[in-house]
Amino acid sequence: MAIVVGLLSTAEGQAALAAAKREAHERSVPLTVVVTGDEDGSGKRAVEEDLVAAGLPFTVVGGTGDLAEDLVRTAHDAGAELIVVGLRRRSPVGKLILGSGAQRILLEAPCPVLAVKP
């Protein structure tokens, strides 16, 4: 069992990471962080330092570039009990249609999904 979250430098990504850390701590399970689009590795290093300092057991896995696919696959492979995603605020028209990545995660996830916003 694990909590799965994607590593994104956006406000939504940071909110998801913070929520995932809280969930992992409260549930006493490891955190699995999916890293996509971090060519220089600085994001990965920063999150590893943060998780070590927090005392959380964790795994960092590389992604293919399709975050929705990567999160669902990783959750399946890890036997995850939760996926945490960040959602951005949308316009009134945009609220009619959930973002395609978030929609794919919700529909294909092998476990519950926690959606947070900054």
From TrEMBL:
Coiled-coil residue windows: none
Transmembrane segments: none
Protein family membership: Belongs to the universal stress protein A family.
Name of the protein described by the UniProt record: Universal stress protein
All copies of domain UspA, residue ranges: 48-117
Pfam families: Usp
Domain of life: Bacteria
Organism: Isoptericola peretonis
InterPro entries per UniProt: Rossmann-like_a/b/a_fold (IPR014729), Universal_stress_UspA (IPR006015), UspA (IPR006016)
